[in-house]
Design the sequence.
């Protein structure tokens, strides 16, 4: 089981946190801080495993992390997960993000945390690995985004068709809408 | 006007979305908190709007703020609103927010049940998917109960996307609602063979998680997983399956052998898999050697440019070794140097792993050496975490298995004393408890320990020097207590007493001061006793004066405990002084205050005290007063408001939390109490095995060793001394041996002395007498209290092979729907549920069939022992020994289901319910697929008498054809020792391998089981005769066969024909088939109406084909086999089976 998935940057600012067990907000922040502290002080060329901190887990849990440019991807897992398997999963996750955002960078994660969550939801569900095939993940994510877009379009056409609306004044908003959905 | 509202709301919608919020936060770096609080105010405004889009936007922002650590639980209801939007876009936002911030105590969760149910049955697969994902994060027991059935339906959804998610979420449902496991399990099992790889992987995932905690319930799935392992190409599935087998192999040793081949293939295919195969603690040496290769590869330093991945491999290699260590310590011990090298690694994770390994590697011989190395590391280590870890490891290593590896306790004490010099450690209490433990339990060491502790007390200022070292001052607690309790060993008690009463002591924590005061009193008593002999009484009076001068300091202490003890003792000393002035001899009486030895009590001892008969702990002693009464009795608060709390009746039930807190407090107290010694994990065992410790002679140690050697740390000194001693011992032994050899020159010379000394050769420096902890007299031997009662997986320990009872069905919503007015959507759903019903039934049937298949791999043969020795008859009846089939209970249920085939039950039950309790035994003979000439006989021995059975020997008179496999070097008539002993009421299984040359004839082997019956007062040698019946069917192995292959086989013409007719068989045809399958290891190839073809194969590869026809009460069986004798015998056996009905 995966207990938590954390993404934070080189300064410990959280970019995504997903806990599969409930903690209150303060503990969550403490865990993120502690994890950052543990992970950031490690050299680049040491192994990617780390026996868990005080707050999260215990002896059965370990942290498996990878460092990409400015971001740390940390998974906290118990002994039923394979270490190399999780490393692989992190790689798949990052590659998927890369595909979905086209050359992903930290800014994408900062501004579209909801989208990252949606991608993650197609990979890990309730702490268990759901899908590891990148193509399958991307297909599902795309299909859902398409659905979202079509709903937005419906809304726009509904506004356009609405007789009592001043269409000209709406144009600007429609435009805004398009750009909003495109930027998502 | 309307336009304005719409426009306004749309304007507002683009007011600030998530991106704007993030941008805003980034632009307000200095006053982030203030900015966010204004944002939250805005969000609150937005949530008040009717427009769902605005609400969704607000909730989306809240999700982000939650990640930053802001509590958003106040918006829970709005989240539910957004969740229930009909638009996927908003629904997704809602579910995401819910999954991030809902948990079991969120009260609005109960509002979501119907919404989630609606989403689950939505025609849009992504609505369902999003609901499942969300639910997986916040499922509660209530939700699990209400939705279990809906989710189970989804497990057979047409879309693999939904199936996958539904299967995966079932694990969460099982955790929250364990009752659902049994009804859902058949379908879960089906999903293992789902055409979609994703669904398959999810099912494997779930079963692996389940099996990890309770592997024994999933043994029956092993063949299926075996098939998956050889066929699957998905790495994830493979990894999970191998992990699963890792959990299963310890339970079923035969699995290990079978796994070797596919695993080797896998490892050759991908080195990747290697990481998980470490889980396999199987018996096979091959696996061990393979992993050794891998470990070596990973540990050898090469390829410097890949240092990171080398580090990964190094870590995994060490991890693998720690798994192997548990089963094959020898093979790991040979890598000791490599592992010690890893301690120097720059990577902390690797160092910690290596430390873990060291724990399992120590022996009497290398303990000192290893600890010495570790001590060096302690000095070098920077960073307190690692140093603390080292410290605990050193203590763990030394104290493991009741100090098994320590040969010289003086050395150990000096190590502990050295450890106290560590700066800033948190583990002072650990060192303290070790000191106490050793001093209490190793009598011979007390003199030395007391001397050391006195020095410690003298130098207390070093330990308490600065506030940072507060953790270590716990050691003083132990030191003070040891000096006080064993003060008779003190060389200069007066000096120690003086040290204990220094004013500086008052800066120590309260509980330590309390111990100081108490033990000062003990010391005082000793000092008085020593001085009593002198004619000059001034010395004694001076001592009293010292006490009277110093104690008032403690009387003023803020700590109640210290204050109380101090004032008590002060008064006592004042009284003593008065008596002294009158020249009365008081020493003896004062000493009597502290007389008596304190024995260590095992921490579990209290729990183990059996409840006396007739005592009901749950019964009220007094009837509890009614609620109102207790309210009336509440006294008026006069002094303070909390007063009523104290006067609350004691027997009011305390809530769980309070109980837990109190328990914790008690534990704490016990930990601090010197009379409660924490047991090492195996102390229980040691307790049972230890012979009466009182009889071991206690040898006084001569303290020729100087206590401190300048320049050298002390423990080193001991290492040297110890080495010298060992050397000397070895030399002595050599001499002796030489002498021996000279004496009997003809004797075979042993090379013993030239090789490295073995474990046993090292004798402890002095006989130590390790006092075992006390246990109540009739403590229960079971040690099941190690399990955590709060473990959610405990509830999932459910026997999955039992057929489902009606009461166990999942709650279906039907009866509730009848009450509520039905919406069209719900109608459809109800229909759906109805159509599910027959499916469920069929799956149930399938399951039963499957079970038959599982069962028919084994033959159970009734075996009634000849009971010849009439001399012992009466005695033996009492000591009836029954060997019982392991799965009897299961089998019983099985029969129950085929209740109309009632006659069969007697096979099993008849043997057990014999009128006279005769030793009856059921065993299982199984052919070995890999070796055509071997059968394995598993026998379950159960001790039904009240005495202890030991030295069991199993022997069989070999025939020409069948031989019991004995270890090399033993004669053909030697018995095999059964590798266990049986306490009363315990059963255990042993396996014996037989070699069989020809399998075409059934045969019986005579054998005897000899054993020693041990009572409290006597032990007698007993013997049981038995017969092993090897039927021909026990050589058959159920092998599935497809109809085309079957037809080809029949056409080939190599097979000889034979037939048999059974008359008067009154049972349904499928029962008949099931019976043949079950008892004779056949599998059904094809069945058409009242005609069926069946197939089986012998361990030597003979094909056996049956054609079974039935008409009325006559059953005719035409059979073909390439070995006519075998066929004849098999048919005879089948005939016999049915004649018993």
Sequence:
């Amino acid at each position: 089981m995966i207990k938590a998935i954390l993404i934070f940057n080189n300064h410990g600012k959280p970019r995504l946190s997903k806990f599969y067990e409930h903690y209150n907000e303060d503990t969550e922040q403490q865990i993120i801080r502690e994890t950052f502290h543990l992970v950031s002080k490690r050299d680049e060329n040491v192994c990617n495993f780390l026996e868990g901190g005080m707050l999260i887990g215990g002896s059965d849990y370990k942290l498996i992390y990878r460092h990409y440019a400015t971001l740390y991807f940390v998974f906290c897992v118990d002994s039923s997960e394979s270490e190399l398997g999780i490393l692989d999963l992190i790689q798949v996750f990052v590659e998927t993000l890369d595909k979905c955002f086209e050359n992903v960078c930290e800014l994408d994660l900062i501004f579209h945390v909801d989208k990252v969550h949606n991608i993650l939801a197609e990979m890990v569900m309730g702490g268990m690995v759901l899908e590891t095939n990148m193509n399958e993940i991307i297909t599902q994510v795309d299909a859902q985004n398409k659905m979202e877009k079509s709903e937005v379009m419906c809304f726009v056409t509904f506004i356009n068709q609405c007789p009592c609306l001043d269409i000209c004044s709406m144009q600007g908003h429609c435009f805004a809408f398009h750009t909003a959905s495109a930027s998502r | 006007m309307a336009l304005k509202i719409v426009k306004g709301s749309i304007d507002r919608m683009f007011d600030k979305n998530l991106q704007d919020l993030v941008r805003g936060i980034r632009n307000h770096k200095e006053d982030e908190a203030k900015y966010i609080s204004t944002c939250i105010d805005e969000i609150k405004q937005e949530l008040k709007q009717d427009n769902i889009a605005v609400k969704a936007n607000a909730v989306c922002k809240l999700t982000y703020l939650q990640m930053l650590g802001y509590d958003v639980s106040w918006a829970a209801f709005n989240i539910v609103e957004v969740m229930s939007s009909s638009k996927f876009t908003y629904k997704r936002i809602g579910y995401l927010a819910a999954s991030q911030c809902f948990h079991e105590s969120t009260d609005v969760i109960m509002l979501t049940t119907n919404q989630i149910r609606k989403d689950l049955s939505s025609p849009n697969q992504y609505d369902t998917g999003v609901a499942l994902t969300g639910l997986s994060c916040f499922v509660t027991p209530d939700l699990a109960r209400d939705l279990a059935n809906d989710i189970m339906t989804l497990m057979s959804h047409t879309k693999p996307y939904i199936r996958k998610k539904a299967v995966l979420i079932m694990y969460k449902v099982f955790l929250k609602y364990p009752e659902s496991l049994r009804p859902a399990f058949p379908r879960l099992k089906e999903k293992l063979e789902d055409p979609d790889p994703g669904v398959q992987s999810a099912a494997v995932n779930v079963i692996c998680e389940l099996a990890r905690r309770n592997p024994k319930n999933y043994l029956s799935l092993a063949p299926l997983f075996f098939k998956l392992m050889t066929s699957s190409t998905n790495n994830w599935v493979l990894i999970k399956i191998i992990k699963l087998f890792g959990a299963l192999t310890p339970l079923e040793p035969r699995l290990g052998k079978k796994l070797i081949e596919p695993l080797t293939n896998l490892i050759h295919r991908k080195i990747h898999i290697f990481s998980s195969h470490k889980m396999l603690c199987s018996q096979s040496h091959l696996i061990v050697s393979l992993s050794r290769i891998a470990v070596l590869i990973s540990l050898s330093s090469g390829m410097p440019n890949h240092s990171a991945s080398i580090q990964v491999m190094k870590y995994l290699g060490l991890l693998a070794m720690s798994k192997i260590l548990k089963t094959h310590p020898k093979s790991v011990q040979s890598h000791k140097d490599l592992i010690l090298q890893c301690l120097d690694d720059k990577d902390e994770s690797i160092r910690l792993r290596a430390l873990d390994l060291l724990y399992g590697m120590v022996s009497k011989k290398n303990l000192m050496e290893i600890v010495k190395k570790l001590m060096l590391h302690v000095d070098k280590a920077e960073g307190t975490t690692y140093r603390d870890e080292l410290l605990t490891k050193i203590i763990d290593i030394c104290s493991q298995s009741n100090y098994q590896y320590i040969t010289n306790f003086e050395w150990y004490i000096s190590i502990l004393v050295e450890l106290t010099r560590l700066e800033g450690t948190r583990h002072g209490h650990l060192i303290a408890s070790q000191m106490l433990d050793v001093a209490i339990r190793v009598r011979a060491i007390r003199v030395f320990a007391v001397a050391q502790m006195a020095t410690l007390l003298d130098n207390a200022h070093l330990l308490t020097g600065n506030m940072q070292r507060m953790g270590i001052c716990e050691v003083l607690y132990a030191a003070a207590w040891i000096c006080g309790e064993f003060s008779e060993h003190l060389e200069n008690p007066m000096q120690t007493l003086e040290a204990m009463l220094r004013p500086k002591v008052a800066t120590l924590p309260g509980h330590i001061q309390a111990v100081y005061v108490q033990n000062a009193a003990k010391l005082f008593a000793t000092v008085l006793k020593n001085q009593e002999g002198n004619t000059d009484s001034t010395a004694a009076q001076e001592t009293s004066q010292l006490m009277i001068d110093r104690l008032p300091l403690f009387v003023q202490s803020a700590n109640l405990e210290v204050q109380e003890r101090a004032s008590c003792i002060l008064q006592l000393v004042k009284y003593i002084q008065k008596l002294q002035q009158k020249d009365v001899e008081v020493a003896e009486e004062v000493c009597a205050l502290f007389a008596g030895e304190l024995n260590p009590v095992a921490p579990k001892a209290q729990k183990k005290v059996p409840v006396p008969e007739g005592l009901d702990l749950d019964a009220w002693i007094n009837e509890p007063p009614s609620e109102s009464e207790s309210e009336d009795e509440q006294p008026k608060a006069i002094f303070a408001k909390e007063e009523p709390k104290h006067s609350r009746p004691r027997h009011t039930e305390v809530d769980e939390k309070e109980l837990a807190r109190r328990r914790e407090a008690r534990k704490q107290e016990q930990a601090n109490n010197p009379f409660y010694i924490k047991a090492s994990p195996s102390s229980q065992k040691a307790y049972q095995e230890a012979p009466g410790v009182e009889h071991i002679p206690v040898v006084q140690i001569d303290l020729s060793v100087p206590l401190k050697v300048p320049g050298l740390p002390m423990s080193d000194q001991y290492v040297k001394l110890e080495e010298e001693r060992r050397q000397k011992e070895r030399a002595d032994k050599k001499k002796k041996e030489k002498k021996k050899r000279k004496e009997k020159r003809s004797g075979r010379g042993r090379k013993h002395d030239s090789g490295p000394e073995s474990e046993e050769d090292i004798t402890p420096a002095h006989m130590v007498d390790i006092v075992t902890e006390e246990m109540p007299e009739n403590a229960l031997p079971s040690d099941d209290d190690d399990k955590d009662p709060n473990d959610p997986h405990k509830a999932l320990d459910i026997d999955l092979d039992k057929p489902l009872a009606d009461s166990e069905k999942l709650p279906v919503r039907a009866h509730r729907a009848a009450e509520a007015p039905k919406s069209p959507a719900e109608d459809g759903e109800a229909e759906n549920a109805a159509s599910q019903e027959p499916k469920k039934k069929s799956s149930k049937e399938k399951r039963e069939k499957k079970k038959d298949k599982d069962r028919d791999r084994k033959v159970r043969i009734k075996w009634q022992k000849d009971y010849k020795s009439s001399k012992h008859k009466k005695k033996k009846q009492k000591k009836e020994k029954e060997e019982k089939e392991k799965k009897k209970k299961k089998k019983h249920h099985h029969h129950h289901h085929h209740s109309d085939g009632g006659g069969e039950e007697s096979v099993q039950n008849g043997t057990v319910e014999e009128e006279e309790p005769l030793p009856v035994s059921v065993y299982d003979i199984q052919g070995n697929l890999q070796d055509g000439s071997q059968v394995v006989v598993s026998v379950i021995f159960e001790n039904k008498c009240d005495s202890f059975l030991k030295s069991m020997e199993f022997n069989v008179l070999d025939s020409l054809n069948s031989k019991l496999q004995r270890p090399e070097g033993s004669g053909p008539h030697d018995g095999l020792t059964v590798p266990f002993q049986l306490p009363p009421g315990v059963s255990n299984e042993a396996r014996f391998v037989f070699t069989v040359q020809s399998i075409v004839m059934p045969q019986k082997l005579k054998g005897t089981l000899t054993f020693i019956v041990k009572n409290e007062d006597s032990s007698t040698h007993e013997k049981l005769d038995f017969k092993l019946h090897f039927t021909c069917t026990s050589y058959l192995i159920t092998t599935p066969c497809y109809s085309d292959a079957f037809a080809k086989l029949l056409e080939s013409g190599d097979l000889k024909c034979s037939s048999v007719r059974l008359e008067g068989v009154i049972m349904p045809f499928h029962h008949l088939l099931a019976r043949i399958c079950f008892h004779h290891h056949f599998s059904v190839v094809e069945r058409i109406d009242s005609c069926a073809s069946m197939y089986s194969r012998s361990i030597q590869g003979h094909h056996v084909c049956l054609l079974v026809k039935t008409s009325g009460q006559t059953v005719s069986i035409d059979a073909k086999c390439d070995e006519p004798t075998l066929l004849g015998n098999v048919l005879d056996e089948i005939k016999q089976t049915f004649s018993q009905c």
Q: What stands out?
A: Chain A touches chain B through 62 residues (CB under 8 Å). The radius of gyration of chain A is 20 Å. The longest helix of chain A spans residues 134-161. Chain A has a mean pLDDT of 80.
